[in-house]
Design a protein that fits this description.
The structure holds two protein chains of two kinds. By secondary structure, chain A is mainly alpha-helical. Chain A is globular, with a radius of gyration of 23 Å. Chain B folds into two domains: 163 residues, Rossmann fold, CATH 3.40.50.300; 65 residues, no CATH class. Chain B has seven helices and ten strands. Classes of the chains: A mainly alpha, B alpha/beta. Chains A and B meet through α7 and α8 of A and β6 and α2 of B.
């Protein structure tokens, strides 16, 4: 029975991918001019890995996009956690800053693109700023939630053992909210990856988003799909990396699942 | 008073609005003494402990430890709460080190004390486990270990065994006596279980209904371990139960 389950666990994911490919091929057979075959896309991937488009091969395009995301993500993490701690811990600051945050928060990062381009031009800065806007929101929200849900018993315990305010923040409040903060960072990184593609599709000379737009402009549907496949694969790899990071950062939470 | 008492409580009063919870409570506790505080449900025992560690500010009155006003930053206090309060992100060993590290003890002393406590409480096999991987009663043992590891001047315990089964309770009662005698700690132990109080205490403070005052003090001079079936034990237990009755 256990053996059977093991086989099913292996078989079912393979089956679902197989189903997706079948659908893809069916589409290709019906509309070959606008839906390239999976093999054509693979071939295109291979081609752009070897031959540069806009002076960069595929790995460079990926690295350019990732660089923008990681730069903005690092900035959003530092500022977002700081802002979130202030919002979550200090009542007065919460009263002052929360309404403003609540008004700005629901505006999708993509809606900022025109304004950011007006302000920062079409260089690297504008892309980083757009990703930053997308990434900081989940980090702030999760940090605030984490801080507000700190178990009061643990604060009492730390205080009764003579910990001062700084030590309580460092030794009790932050560790207890860490799982929530890390969850926010996970969301932020996926959001950031989506934002960078949107920004690159509007204006860029390199990056995965640029590849898709180039495919559209030149009527090269294989290139569009190749770009989309890359987006999916990179996202999946980011998720794997983040899950690993979560295990390292919050070992007590992960074993609880 | 030639010999300074370890803890002096003077006119301790706490009001929440119109409600007087504690009304001019005064008593002394000697160094190394094990004092149990018993009283009817809702008589403000927990408020009293929270005042002692300055988690609450008194409306009136004062608490002195070694002649100075009580201050958890200055004095070496430790608290075992009713609810489990082990830090979930620290392993058993790290939890036991926590308070000692807050007090910036020398590394070697921390190592030694931690080993001793782990051994004493039978936690050696779990040293690298996280609290949630263990049972609730083991988690409470971690907290007790963490408190004793600090070698506190004053250890406050608020119904620490409230959620445990009888067998474990007996085991930990003996353990707490052993640790207390080895560390020569001064302990204030709050409980609603009178048998537990008579089993543990050198002295029992009986609190009244709200507004709470110390109704009576009962000295218990039996040697440890005490026989819960002995005549003297049963007499004391019945006497204290009678004093707590408010119906």
């Amino acid at each position: 029975m256990a053996r059977m389950k093991k086989w099913m666990d292996l078989l079912l994911p393979v089956l679902s991918v197989f189903l997706l490919l079948t659908l893809w091929i069916l589409l290709h057979v019906r509309k070959p001019d606008i839906m390239p075959a999976p093999l054509d896309v693979l071939q295109k991937l291979w081609e752009i890995t070897l031959h540069p488009i806009s002076k960069a091969t595929l790995p460079i395009h990926i690295l350019v996009s990732l660089g923008r995301v990681l730069g903005a993500f690092a900035l959003a993490s530092v500022l977002g956690v700081t802002f979130g701690v202030l919002l979550g811990w200090y009542e007065t600051f919460h009263h002052i800053a929360w309404p403003v945050f609540e008004i700005i928060r629901p505006i999708p990062p993509i809606a900022w693109i025109p304004l950011i381009i007006l302000w920062c031009g079409i260089g690297e800065t504008s892309k980083v700023v757009i990703v930053f806007i997308g990434a900081i929101v989940p980090i702030v929200l999760n940090t605030v939630a984490g801080i507000r849900q700190v178990n009061p018993m643990l604060l009492k315990a730390a205080r009764s053992m003579g910990a001062n305010d700084m030590a309580i923040m460092r030794e009790a409040v932050l560790p207890d909210s860490l799982p929530s903060i890390v969850a926010g960072m996970k969301t932020a990184l996926s959001t950031g990856w989506m934002c960078v593609l949107a920004a690159e599709m509007v204006v860029a000379r390199q990056g995965v988003g640029f590849l898709i737009i180039r495919g559209m402009d030149s009527g090269d549907s294989a290139l569009i799909l190749a770009g989309m496949v890359v987006i999916g694969v990179v996202s999946a790899l980011i998720t794997v990396a983040l899950n690993y990071l979560e295990v390292r950062l919050c070992p007590w939470k992960v074993t609880q699942k | 008073m030639g010999n300074q008492a370890k803890v002096k409580v003077r006119n301790l009063t706490k009001k929440f609005g119109d409600l007087t919870v504690l009304d001019h409570v005064s008593f002394d506790i000697e160094r190394g003494e094990f004092v149990c505080i018993v009283g009817p449900t809702g008589c403000g025992k927990t408020t009293f402990l929270n005042l002692l560690v300055k988690l609450l500010e008194p409306t009136e009155g004062n608490i002195f430890i070694d002649g100075e006003e009580a201050d958890p930053k200055k004095h070496n206090l430790s608290f075992v709460f009713q609810e489990p309060s082990a830090f979930p992100w620290l392993t058993v060993e790290q939890n036991i080190r926590f308070g000692q590290e807050t007090k910036k003890r020398p590394r070697q002393e921390i190592d030694q004390t931690t080993e001793y406590i782990l051994e004493m409480l039978g936690l050696k096999d779990f040293r690298n486990k996280y609290p949630h991987e263990l049972s609730a009663s083991t988690e409470q043992r971690i907290v007790i270990g963490r408190s004793f590891a600090m070698k506190p001047d004053l250890l406050l315990m608020d119904e620490p065994y409230g959620q445990m089964d009888l067998k474990l309770r007996y085991y930990l009662e003996d353990e707490v006596i052993r640790l207390q005698q080895a560390a020569k700690s001064t302990v204030i132990f709050i409980t609603h279980n009178i048998e537990e109080a008579v089993y543990l205490a050198d002295r029992c403070l009986i609190l009244s209904q709200k507004p709470t005052t110390v109704k009576e003090e009962v000295q218990i001079n039996m040697p440890h371990p005490r026989n819960v079936a002995s005549k003297e034990f049963i007499q004391l237990r019945e006497y204290i139960t009678e004093q707590i009755r408010w119906w």
